[in-house]
Amino acid sequence: MAESNATQVILTDDGLKIIKAQNTADNAAGGVANLNDPNLMSVIEKQNNIGQFAGLTSQYNVLVQNAKDDGIDTTAVTTAYNDLNKFMADILEDPSHASDIDRVTYKKYQDAYNQELANIQNALQNNANNKFASAANATSQAATTANAAKSAADSTYAYANSEISVQSTATAKAQKAADDAFSQAVTAIDTGQAASQAVTALKDGSTLTIAELGNGLAEKVSNSEYASYKEQTASQIGQLVTDGAFSAYQQTTKDLISSKVATSDFSSYKDETARAINSKVESRDFNTYKTQTDSAIESKVSNGDFSTYKTQTANDIDLRVTKKGLLDQINLQAGNTLISSSGQLTLSGKNIYFDSSNPVIIPSANIDTLLVDKKLEAADISANTFSTNNETFTVDKYGAVVASNLTIRGVTNLVYNAALLGGNWNTIPGWTISNNGCYWPGNTHDGVPSIGWNNTTVGWTIFAQTKLYPLNGATGQPFSASVWFKDFGSDTSLQYSFGLVFFDSNQNRIESNLYGYAISGMKTAQPWKYMTVDNAVAPSNAVYVGLQYWSYNGHGNACFSSPMLTQTAHSTGYQPDVGNVVSAGIINGSVINGSTMNGTTFHGGDIINDANNMSKFYPTTISSDGHIYTTRFNPVDAMQTDLSTGALTTKYRAINTTNPNNHYEAYDTTLQADQIALFAGYTNGKDMSFTQSVTGSNQEGYVLISPLDGLTLHGDNQQITFNGTSDDVTPKGIFITPYGNINPNGTQNIWYVGNNMNMKTASFGIDGSGTYGIQFNRSLDIGNFNINTYHTITSSDNGPIHFNRADGKSVDIFAATVNYTSLVKSSLLSVKRDVRKADTAYWAQLVNSIDLATYQYKTDDNTSHIRLSSIVDDVNVTKQWQLPDVFISRDEDGKLCGVDDSVLLNATLATVQEQQKEIDQLNGHLLELEAKLNG
User: Fold this and answer.
1) Count of CA atoms in the C-beta half-sphere (13 A) of 565
2) Alpha carbon of 412 to those of 103, 535, 578, 705, 726: distances in Å?
3) pTM summary value
4) Given 538, 563, 667, 769, which is the most exposed site by the fewest CB atoms within 10 A?
5) Beta-carbon contacts of residue 582 (< 8 Å; ≥ 6 apart)
């Protein structure tokens, strides 16, 4: 700082007021700056957020309780709310002052909570819609049952009336049929029982009346959003079930049956018919007929004429068939019958039966053109070999089938692999098994294994689904299904559901058309139970159909067996899907054609001949779970590629190692729709089965490329390397480390940002010697601080510029000449301690002891003016220039820096005050002298 002559500064009251006003203005400006600072939450924003967050908490509590009542999982929304709540609690703790805030984190927590909140609301909406759909369906079925009951009664009456007019024995049949119909009608109509028991067996197995169902829905769905739905449903139930129309069905049916069956006319018919039968059967005339008939038969069979006929017939047979002249014969003996012909023997009849305990033996037979367009039927045909005449189809004694064209068709069961062939724990060909569902070969129904589930669930959990069957345009057609179910002991709160489900073209379940059978868990083991789903009509947007097994709300232990799905209105019972699954040891063929080919496993080539191939891999394998594997072994390494739904995984395994811990080099690469993952690490021992994972403790690093998260690096060797251009003989460029740092590669000394080498925006020295610095070639904005390329430092918001140390205190500034408009020293009493009135005489004495000198700096040239100031003698041990130590400035290490002008200036002020006192005294003496002279 250039030294100059002392200046007298006098602060008046007005000056102090001006300073105070300036401070007030500065504070106000600071408050406005807080509002504009994105990294601060102002007091105004805090007050607004406190009110909003209170409402958010209230909304959260209500929705979570509703979700729990409906059995919806609230874990995700609770986690999201707690994260947001904790983040906001720390910020809103002090509502009277602005606080720092990370806006990015704040938005992340807000977005996460809003997403989970939307998920909960959607789940509640879906549950409510399902309940209303079930209620409407139950109402419709109740009305249908009542109509059917009336129709059955009318039909029974007509049948009884016609039988009476034909014969008297119809009396008993009509009476019984009428009684049955009347009983059914009363059961269907009386006291609404049809609606409560025969129709509305609800999904949870309970038997509620329609009124009870309405009350239950009213309790569950009580908010205003669903009030209209509740009123409409109650109105429909009242109109169809409990009003006068339903009562009319009941009374009308009773009256019709009573009028036609229980009338006096009917009793008269019954009595007259009985008397007519009795009079004809028990009368003397009937007995006479019976006696006369018996006598006539006896007289014709036992008389001499009949014996004569018998003898003559035997003589005629002996005359025409003599043993010596026998060419064709029929020989009847005890235990043996012979029919022999030297020519053709023809058995002709509408039906010819061979009724034999032992097999019929035919040494040789030709079945050829005589059976064209006819059919040969048999329960079982056993033969050593079988072939067609032209040998287009043959079966040898070892079971090998050779056919020029072979088509295999299944039966009507649309469930692929309903018999669960090839099942193994949680893998069953043709099935999707999840959520602890598994293959139970030990629990069978009629020899068919089952799919079991022994676990605990809160919400609805699907644990098995069949392979989807394409409808091929069969919309509007009815489907039915059946399955056998066994409960080994489950919570009574648990529900099992067997669903017949339709899917759209994206294989999404069509929620508006769900058909199923639900049953509640039983505490003790139960016998097998038969479940059916009938008349499930495929909607217009259905493309696939399939079956699903579900569980809900509790712990269970149960299994399903023998599923059946058919395109019929009513279930037909289980049939194996023979023809849909072909089981064979080996199928050989140069070309195998088919629109759909299903199999457990397909191999390409022979087992790889390599000593390390202990798992007996083929070059190519297609497994039953949809994976395609290709494998290769060589003397250095082994590799395998796995192509599955949505992923491609390549594995590298080293065959040799020098690692003392028996670690073998290993790499895994996975390509998925949303990520490319490259893992580097090792396996513990040689992994020629490709079963060890290069994750966890075996992982040494990874690289992830994702459209969601970008590029992720982790590990000691994972980095991005730039090696320069084609002109660079040796690598030259940079490395970007896993921490995101930039390091030089080869001889690269700088790293710059800019348009090109000649238009650098900024250049950063990255050489190891530290020779190259950092250079900015454009204006630099740091918050409200701007440094341009024209020697100017600017406060962008016109605020003051502060130079502080890390501890927040002001830092020393070194400069040559400082030009300023005003120089202000902070001298507020509020920031000072040990304040005492200064001894101006003492300070004046120190000032007067200073040696002043004129001089020039060694760096000055001839144009520099002469300088005047005190001297800090940092050269001589015995100081040659007098300057009291109180005026000398030192750094933190005690090293001499220069003159402390702040102290010197105020000491000079003290000297001025002392001089003013002396002047006042001299003026007083002068006035005394003038008075004496004038006196």
Assistant:
1) 27
2) 62, 16, 9, 48, 68
3) 0.36
4) 769
5) 408, 598, 599
